[in-house]
Amino acid sequence: MKKLMTSLDKKIFDKNSQVAKRMVEYGKKDELFIIIPHPKEQELNLSDAVHVWGTGGNKLQQFFRLKKLGKEIIKKNKIEQITTQDPFYIGKIGWLLKRKSKINLEVQLHGDFFSAKGGSVFGGSNYYKRQNFLKYLLGKFIIKKADKLRVVGERIRQSLIKLGIEEKRIEIKPIFVDTEKIKNYEPKIDLHQKYPGYEKTFLVLARLEKVKNVGWLVNVFKDVIREKKDYLLLIVGDGKELEEIKLQITNYKLQKNIKIENWTSDPISYLKTTDCLLFPSLSEGYGLIPMEAHVACTPIIMNDVGVANYELKPSEKVKILPIDDKDAWKKAILEI
Questions:
Q1: Looking at the domain covering 2-172, what would its CATH class be?
Q2: What is the pLDDT of residues 227-258, one digit of tens each?
Q3: How far from each other are the two terminal CA atoms of the chain, in whole angstroms?
């Protein structure tokens, strides 16, 4: 099948990136024509079956060029399906192309955008609805116009069913977890050797964005170290919240007990040598990091989001907690 894909992931242009390699794997089944909003106009063949275009232009120009590129690709190639990476602005491009060409539209949902759950910090309602109501309404419109919805986990499927989406239109395609690689992997970094002198080391691997809730976790850990002064929280990641979290750590004088690193190229070593993975996210469509930690037999404390209570069940090593329950988080950390 020939597919036209709209994507936001600029890492596809890096042939050595995981997402580019994943596209090449997909290309072994279907021929892919991928268009990406990008400040640089460019064209790249990742393989004989995977072709990638960047639009060029500013943000407004990128939107119109996506549509123009899509129409040209559909005209030159016998495209059989349009697939979009999300139900929002590039989802709208997919819908506009579907209207013009009458080609089947598949919308991918990698996030739980339409769930009623959310942390109290956002008023206890849907996180995405509170952040950008117009974008939320656009997403609801697009998913109702799609011929097929591809989701990464059962939680998203249930959210869509509650919105009135027919079950037959929803397909679950989980994110691939390389269980054999993780199980057999010999760690190259030991966090206890890298950060000696701590009784226990707790790990966060995340983009430092508001939805990941890491600043809230810093507040929890501040209370934890009043009782356990030799506990370490290691935050690995980068994002818009980085400077705010650094300031928070400084203001609370937590530099001894909370460290921040840039994203690592060896997350499996970190997962296999930490005492516990902490996953305080407010909303997730899936949750690859806790799934990988589970395969690595690492204890996990996480909010009730994404894979929690669906693909990942509570157990001795998996603690699933209500969103924003500070006391429950503190108690769970102290019990590790």
A1: alpha beta
A2: 999 999 999 999 999 999 999 999 999 999 99
A3: 50
Least confident of 45-54, 56-65, 129-138, 166-175: 129-138
- Quote the pTM value: 0.82
Band (127; pLDDT cuts 50, 70, 90):
low
Domain boundaries for CATH 3.40.50.2000 within the chain:
2-172, 179-334
Q: What CATH number has the domain spanning 179-334?
A: 3.40.50.2000
How far CA 322 is from CA of 26, 91, 128, 281, 329, in Å, comes to 37, 32, 18, 11, 9
